[in-house]
Design goal:
Elements (H helix, E strand, L loop, with lengths): L21 E7 L4 E7 L4 E5 L4 E8 L1 E6 L2 E6 L3 E4 L5 E5 L3 E8 L7
């Protein structure tokens, strides 16, 4: 059996700043994308939707995640499952670290 293991160092992945007050790094597999966000307090993620399943995990801090108009307050240790095509946005209530997992892979983030 061939070993296709990839080991990545998060600090060596390209950091992007798609919105003011936030840095994100992406790891892609054949079928998934995982994004590692660092938000400054007050950073706003504009409302959007996509056909991907999304699981959002708050690792540190607090984030308000609005899904289809409903505000959900997430703190460290909480996970939200965002259905495909749901309109959603976010606001960092404090400095926070968030991990988003997407299925299938987000080709637009490659």
């Amino acid at each position: 059996m061939q070993n296709d293991l990839q080991v990545l160092r998060l600090s060596e992945l390209e950091g992007r700043q798609p919105i003011q007050g936030a840095t994100v790094r992406f790891a892609h597999s054949e079928h998934m994308t995982v994004s590692y966000w660092e938000f400054e307090a007050g950073a706003l993620l504009p409302e959007h939707s996509h056909p991907h399943e999304q699981i959002t995990s708050v690792i540190e801090g607090a984030l308000d995640l609005t899904v289809e108009g409903q505000v959900n307050h997430l703190e460290a240790g909480m996970v939200a499952i965002v259905p495909p095509n749901a309109r959603h946005s976010g606001k960092a209530i404090s400095p926070c670290r968030v991990i988003d997992a997407f299925y299938p892979v987000r080709e637009d983030f490659r």
